Every structure is written in C-alpha cells, then in structure tokens.
Amino acid sequence: MRRLRHLADFHRTSSTNRALGYLMAFNAGAINAGGFTVLELYTSHMTGFMSMLADHLVLGNTALVLAALGALLAFTAGAAVSAMLVNWARLLGLRSTYALPLLLVALLMLLFGLVGSVTMNWKTLFAVPMTVLLLSFMMGVQNATLTKMSNATIRTTHMTGVVTDLGIELGKMLFWNRLAGVQQQKVRANWSKVRLFSGLLGMFFVGGIAGALGFKQWGFVCVVPLALLLMLVSLPPLWADGRKLRHYFASRAT
C-alpha cells in the first residue's frame, strides 16, 4: 500500500517508474482492445489513423478522412493538456505533478465507463462518435504523462517503440562478441531494459485480453474498476498538496 501511494508522486525512482508503467500499459491495453470490441477502432494507434487519413483522402472518402483527423487532433490535444498540467504543477512545486493528468485520465475513464454506450450515438463534426474522440484524447494524456515522467523511456499506449527497443536489446544479447578485440568493445544487453520492455509488452497484452473479455461480458462499465484504481494512485500526492492548492486558488480569487 505504501508503494501504491508513491506511484504518482513527483519524486521518481526507477522502481516507481516501472511499476506505474506496468499499470498504465495494462490500462492502455484494456482500453485499446476493449474499445476495438465496441468501436472497431484502435484508439491509441495514431500510426493507423495517419495512414487512414492519407488513404481515404486519396480515395475521396470524406467521412473517414474526418474520422481520422478527429482522432489525431483529440490525441494531440490530450498530449498538450498533459504538458500544460505537468508544467503548471512544476511551477507551483507540487508533488502531484504527474498525479494531475493521471487523475484526469481516471475521471475520463469513469465518464467513459458510465455513459460510453450513450456517447456512442453522439455524432461529432468529425464523423465519429464522441466515444472515439474521448478515448483518443485520454490516450494522448496518458502517453504524454508517462513520456515526461520517464524522460521518454516509457511509453504505454502503443507498443511499436517498446518492441523496437526490446529487439535492440535482444540483438545485443545475441551478438557474437568474439569479434570484439578488447573488453570495452564487447556488446552487452542492458538486462534492466529487457525486463522493463518485456514487462510493458506483457502487461499491455494481458490488459488487452482483460479489456476484450470485460467489454464482451459487461460492456462499458468494465472500465470503472480501472478508473477507481487509477484515482487511488493519483489522490495521495494531491492530498499532500491540499494546502498549496487551496492557497493558490484563494490568491487567484482575490
């Protein structure tokens, strides 16, 4: 429980980064796979949306062009909001620097879980349901937060970079060092990175299975427990910052 309280704290260690990365990879896997079950779109997959935008622009399918554009803009907006929250919290010297955007993700997940089936029918200017934009925005917030928190070593909403980095370390591990002339030239795998990237990949996969099964059995409400867990992780640093935040908002009101 003590470790859980420090997962979203400003003061970072490699172990808290790794633990939060695993949790958020599971979360992204569940949302991504579960979202595909009901929307038939992978809402954290911006590479796919960019390709979709290009393909259907050539094919003249305006509705799908708008859909791809909407998802891309929503993801970008989420990343921008995360950066603004993190930088604002840093200026105030808050412990909840990373807890603020993670709490936003938790609240959006709770909203998605409780009213997702309703927002699926709310068409937007981008020719997609509000649910698609909500999930893309949410994944943008999450990805930017974990990227800033870990100095770009951990990304959790898509696995292309993770698989690439894991492949690089496996290549080092399998390299035939007999070709190296001196000890300093020998190529060695970074085992901490191998464990990190393998863990992220595994948790994303397990989260995907859980999300697909959960959406199939219970629908949108299955994300509510995940949202509550993320709120539990986010609230301790915010609680610790209570006095600073009250003083800040009181000074702004006068």
TrEMBL record:
UniProt xrefs under Pfam families: DUF1275
Range of residues in the leader sequence: none
Q: Does the keyword GTP-binding apply?
A: no
Which UniProt keyword terms apply here?
Membrane, Transmembrane, Transmembrane helix
Query: So where does this one cross the membrane?
Result: 20-43, 63-86, 98-118, 124-141, 194-212, 218-239
Say which domain of life the source belongs to: Bacteria
Classification via PANTHER family: SLR0142 PROTEIN, UPF0700 TRANSMEMBRANE PROTEIN YOAK
In its UniProt entry, what is this protein called?
DUF1275 family protein
Source organism of this protein record:
Comamonas kerstersii
